[in-house]
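Its record is retained below.
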Amino acid sequence: GQRIQKKSKSGRVFPDEDSSAASSGRLFVRNLLFSVEETDLANLFGKYGTVLEVHVSVDKDTKQGKGYACVQFQSPAEAVAARDALDESIFQGRLMHILLAKPKPVVERIVPANHKEKTKTRNKEMSMQEKVWNSLFMRQDTVAAAAAQKLGVSKNELLTSDLEGSSAAVRLAMSETSLIQETKKFLEDEGISIEALDPSRKVQRQRSDTIILVKNIPFETDVSELEEMFQKYGTVLRVVVPPTKTIAIIEFSVPSDARSAFRHLAFHSYKHIPLLLEWAPVGIFSKAAKPKKSAEETQQANEDSMAVEEDLSPADSRTLFVKNMAFTTDSAALKNLFANKRYNVRSVKVPQKKILESAKDTKSKKAAVEQAGTGMGYAFVEFATAEDSERALRECQNIELDGRTLTLQRSQRSTGPTTESDSKKNVNKRFADQTAKSAKLMIRNIAFETTKKEIRELFSSVAELKSIRLPKKFDGTHRGFAFVECSSKKEAEKAMELLANTHLYGRHLVIEYAKEEENVEEMRHKIASQLFGTQIANKRRKVTSQTENENE
């Protein structure tokens, strides 16, 4: 190909480069630290364009880097710009050398011979995408097997439709709900964030490059077999499998090993069942993986932890709310008050008044300036321990400071720094929660073979109900959604939490809070607005009310 000669900003003349390398969008970076990570390079080169892939070559035995890596950009122009800007620059104490690299070797794809192989290949390609619909997906056969073992019956007996007069679909849905709660409890005990796995939270999370979620596993899964299967592709730091055998979480030591395992084992058949793999969200583990310790080391660690006394109680339990303060009292005076009585005070926050931008006239602005910087009559005091907080609440109640009698209460917040926008967000969130939650729930995505009796049986197992409405079409079949009214908002919240991941007849139930209509007239007006428009609906509403008044 045509040879190209370039010169960097530092004056270095690059050797003749093949035109294929100049158009590949790929860089070869060398003279790196052995401890460099892919995220470090992604952050560095990401300033010059869209980085599609970073690969750090590592030693198979030591799992340390070899000192070089490859960075793939979305376009060749971005790669050239990054090379010109970063070549011979210092990164992590080393002088980097960057060259344009040839395109990544393309492996010839073998065209699948039949429809089954084509589907498997397409599913493998789709599994590499980050967009997934349910991280807590559970295989229905695994749910049935786990529930049958827990109840001491066979799967055939569990799924018999005439057992105790209840529906087999409802029994399976109730079993899934119970297993989900058990799985969540186990994962929380293992230090795994359930919030990160919650599919109901519409938050696009960044995905890990070393942790893999393994779903659709059978109930007969053997943890040692599963670990051995993944260890063929690199060092596995830990494998977490709950007793319900509904999901597995596997962490690798380096990203390259995790990618290799993902590429080879996605939709791999295990006990005649294809494995569904998904990259876990970042921050799924609250603690880093620890190497296994001997019995002596474990005993010594337990003795050391018992010897150290540290208060790990939440900040809210250590914080007191102090009110009826003088506006001139500052945080130092309040802290000295408690410190003189031998209380260990960690922090004191006295909210200050600010200059009101809305003050228009000169007198209002002058008064606002004079009051700016003074206290607002209350404060938050955080103690080092919960015991100090409780003792201060008992002993310092109605104590005097700067001529005012102070009132102490337990705080519902900590003394950490908060911004005005954070406060507004919290207020808006609390207001939205209070207005959105109701005792009535709307359930969507209901299978058409589901009956009203089955919905009642499922929801009555987790909450106390008042009524159920299943809207129907003209032909007598229902419309695929229902309204369930619980006895209270608390019961509705409990039902929504417990059944959030439940399937009925193989369909995931989508549960939302329904708006409570004030009366029949409000419902009529709402429907008329949707059908005829707001103006006509208001006119019809006015005519209706006049007619009712005349009748009275």
User: Anything to note?
Assistant: The first strand starts at residue 3 and ends at 4. Residues 58 and 66 are 5 Å apart (CA to CA).
